[in-house]
Amino acid sequence: MKRLILLSIVTALLYQSCDRARYHVFRSYITEYSYSENIQLKITSKGNIVIYRDYRNIEKNKIKTATYSFSSKGEEKKKYDELCKIHNDLSYNKKRSYIVVPIWGICSAIDFREIEVVSDKNFDSEHPAGTSLKDIVRFVSVSPKKFIDSGYKETFNWEKNEPNFFAKDSMIPTMFQPESWNYFPINGLLKDIGTDEMQMLPENTHGILSFDKEPTAEKEHLLKVTIDIGERKKLVRTITKVFK
After folding, report:
1. 189 class by beta-carbon count within 10 Å (0-12 exposed, 13-18 middle, 19+ buried)
2. Which of 21, 209, 232, 240 lies at a CB distance of 3.0 to 4.6 Å from 49, suitable for a disulfide?
3. What percent of the chain has pLDDT over 70?
4. What is the mean pLDDT of the chain?
5. Full DSSP string of 226-244
6. 33 pairs with which residues across the strands?
7. Helix (H) or strand (E) holding 161
8. Distances (CA, A) of 233 to 40, 47, 84, 204
9. Which residues of 17-31 are buried (b: 16+ CB within 10 A; e: fewer)?
10. 95-125 per-position pLDDT tens digit
11. How far apart are CA 102 and CA 94, in angstroms?
């Protein structure tokens, strides 16, 4: 994967270019959690649905946003420590250098618990209007969860093992971050994916929804996507998708 190789080279050059690098012993691999409930949907050029963090109209709509990092103070630092504990990310204990702020281990503070997708029209004989499409819609993303769960030992070889879907959409690279080898692919049908698989998602492009089947009748569907983010909160979004 050329994009990952280039990203690694740029990261290395950034470290080498600064004579005043800062050093810190990081107890956790995740250095920053970014919280925003302004999660929206859009269609990619390939016809997939992106679940992403929208930076527009945050203040106007009074949407809660926050940043919790290793360098936070007060309540924000308490929340950061709480999130590290929730994700069992407490024994990284590695001394690392950074220039201004760490550029690794940045993710969304919102874990998805479940995603439901329904259409306003009949999709096919097995999926009438208003019924779940979880058995034909897949969620694709990346996460460092397996790396952290392995005691910071297990990594993923993207060059040799990249899932086929990850090369099919130009929006995919926006999910990747420096040290991508510590991030594992998430790629499964919504019916098979739960809370364990949708943790520590990328902070901006949280993931992509892709259909494994095409509708047999109407090609234009108004889709309702419901994302359970825990704490009795569900984000409901609608989007029109035209199948070709």
Report:
1. middle
2. 209
3. 89
4. 89
5. EEEEETTEEEEEEEEEE--
6. 68, 107
7. helix 158-161
8. 15, 28, 21, 20
9. eeeeeeeeebebbbb
10. 999 988 999 999 999 999 999 999 999 999 9
11. 13
How many residues are listed for the chain in this entry? 244
* The pair of three-digit structure tokens given for residue 98, joined into one six-digit string: 């950074």
Q: What is the 3 state secondary structure string of the chain?
A: CHHHHHHHHHHHHHHHCCCCCEEEEECCCCCEEEEECCEEEEECCCCCEEEEECCCCCCCCCCCEEEEECCCCHHHHHHHHHHHHHCCCCCCCEEEEECCCCCCCEEECCCCCEEEEEECCCCECCECCCCECCCCEEEEEEECHHHHHCCCCCCCCHHHHCCHHHHCCCCHHHHCCCCHHHCEEEEEECCCCCHHHCCCCCCCEEEEEEECCCCCCCCEEEEEEEEEEECCEEEEEEEEEECC
Both tokens of 74, joined, read: 């007060």
Both tokens assigned to 129:
């209007």
The tokens describing 192, both together, are 């098979």
